[in-house]
Amino acid sequence: MDRRRTEKNDETSAQGRPTLKTLAFMTGLGVTTVSRALKDAPEIGAETRRRVQLVAKQIGYRPNRAGVRLRTGKTNVISLVLNTEQEIMSFVSDIIYGVSEVIADTPYHLIVTPYSRSQDPLDPIRYLVETGSADGVIISRTQPNDARARYMLEHGIPFATHGRTDMGLVHPYHDFDNHAFAVEAVRRLASMGRRKLALLAPPVGLTYHGHTVNGFADALSEVGASEVPFSTVSIDHSIEQIRTRTAQLMRRDIRPDGFVSSAAAATLALVAGIEDAGLKLGRDVDIVSKQSSDLLHLFRPELLIVNENFRLAGSELARSVLGWIGGAAPGSLQSLSVPGEVLAYRRSTD
Amino acid sequence: MDRRRTEKNDETSAQGRPTLKTLAFMTGLGVTTVSRALKDAPEIGAETRRRVQLVAKQIGYRPNRAGVRLRTGKTNVISLVLNTEQEIMSFVSDIIYGVSEVIADTPYHLIVTPYSRSQDPLDPIRYLVETGSADGVIISRTQPNDARARYMLEHGIPFATHGRTDMGLVHPYHDFDNHAFAVEAVRRLASMGRRKLALLAPPVGLTYHGHTVNGFADALSEVGASEVPFSTVSIDHSIEQIRTRTAQLMRRDIRPDGFVSSAAAATLALVAGIEDAGLKLGRDVDIVSKQSSDLLHLFRPELLIVNENFRLAGSELARSVLGWIGGAAPGSLQSLSVPGEVLAYRRSTD
DNA sequence: TCAATATACTGAAACGTTACAGATTGCCAA
DNA sequence: TTGGCAATCTGTAACGTTTCAGTATATTGA
Predict the structure, then answer these.
(1) Across the interface, which of A75, A82, A295 has its CB nearest the CB of B265?
(2) Cα–Cα–Cα angle for B250, B193, B294, nearest 5°?
(3) What are the tens digits of pLDDT across the range B262-312?
(4) Which of A23, B27, B263, B289 is a plausible cystine mate for B267, CB 3.0–4.6 Å?
(5) Nearest C-alpha neighbor of A307 from the set A286, A269, A338
(6) For residue B31, what are the contacts with CB-CB under 8 A and spacing of at least 6?
(7) Strand C contact nucleotides, protein CB < 7 Å
(8) CA angle B24, B30, B31 (to 5 degrees)
(9) Interface test with chain A among B77, B109, B138, by most A beta carbons within 10 Å
(10) Three-state secondary structure call for residue A258
């Protein structure tokens, strides 16, 4: 059953996977020459290079990852660090697919490194750095003063953040312009005559919470509308919590006639809460909501919708990390995604 | 900048990561002894073993993955093979989290290996096997006669399928009992007086399409209801397609008064189509739908819901693969998840 | 007492790769 | 002719690990 070779040389017939040694034997060259020929090193004769590459292609040679990794330290791995308690209707799959698209034609593999909310978010990063498990890292849930970004910068490992930081440190990122989103949302609500607006914001602590809150505030004063505070819940809260808090809010004398919501799942809860309070979407209140997959319009056609493309985010993040690994300047690997227009499926005038 | 050691021995002070050599030096033992001591080999003295393990823990020794992999061929990697064009509201993140949970306390890493629908689904599998990139594989979208399962069985790589096969070959799987789901769904609809039922089924070709269709048919004859054929669309079709086909169906003279739907996103489209035709959920028609995240009840409280837990599926699949890798009999690593009861949030009698 | 055996440990080799430090050849200038 | 040099190619060592084939010491049996 276990038919191992007794000879040291495997230059005979049946082999497992071809290695450099196999190629060296087939071409009559040395292992070193083959190695260099495959990576287009300058001191290899043009014909030799072609010959080696041809044979390599023919027999389907693939470099052994472990060999490369052991020798060079290069893992050819990108790690996507994810929070395990991500909410419902998660965008995670979109990001993964976006990343996959980009690394598909590279030798890179994507590993998913999870952490639970109870853990220190720095734990998985430390693990990756200490064990040298990846050449590059992608993180999300970015904070203005992000310990993970600082740590990776200090340890010299390339990374990209989904969302910006605000520490005066420069690193690649991709972000959705949530300030612009909030501004457009408020303008839209104002244009429909809504004057008392509430914001269902991202969780406090994350950078885009600030962006969203600021955009909301800026636009409020621009259009001369007022805010009904609604900061007891964020989109990170459970469906039930958002729903009950919303219902409470809507039963007060002073209640909002318009909402800006930063996430689709939260919007479902928001609508439920509004209806629990006996009010009607499109008549008593309007909502502008972000979504990452195209289904809110099915939920309630009165919803006003702005799309955020997480697949694009994944692609951009992957491109950024690979760019940094490839030696590009981190400052040149930053991108901001501008929100599209607010989409309406049925007018609130019905 | 590049302060490499000139000495061959790194037994001096500042090092990067500790290796077996480091431990050997610190303990005064040979590298071999240290290696064996760490894995509780029998021929190591009890005290030596303890001493080595203590020191290893103290200095935070972590075996170098590349070294192990090169020497032993063990990758300590599980690959999750995913279709990149997965629909909206994807369960992918749940599966990933489920897998992560299980491998968290193991040396395993999870890599995501994507393939697009245009590709041969066998491609990623071949890649994994040929390059020896993983110790175990998890696949979904399983077919009765699944070329991937056959291929992996032939090549002796442990795997688990999400969904069963029907080839007379034995391998680990986890599946949701879709036959039971369809039966319960039909019974429920029948108990509400619905007699003409339609099925929004999984895509033809996948094993659970058959299970669902059979369960549906079995229960129909059990309760004496009739079927309104609706096989022009499956849950794999786009939201728009399902919606328009549903509307067409519901405008016919003979239209269903009950639906069984195999996916939440499809149900959204189904409801939209029904309402496009001017009919009302809970009055003209009832729907029993599967869902994997808890939000359909927010969409329409009249919906009847059965939950499918994909996180559990991920965990079970991971456990199975690890079990097989660990030498368990593949036949002992099969599990079937029984659907919970049909959940109602508001009675259709309203 | 001697040999046999068990116990505890060890060095060398190998996995596949790349970097370093040559080695060989041919050509040209002096 | 000689030396120098460019152009190609090559062997060896090393990355960190495990396995193989030992070695050394203590213990046992006769």
Answers:
(1) A295
(2) 70
(3) 999 999 999 999 999 999 999 999 999 999 999 999 999 999 999 999 999
(4) B289
(5) A338
(6) B20, B21, B24
(7) 7-12, 14-21
(8) 65
(9) B109
(10) strand
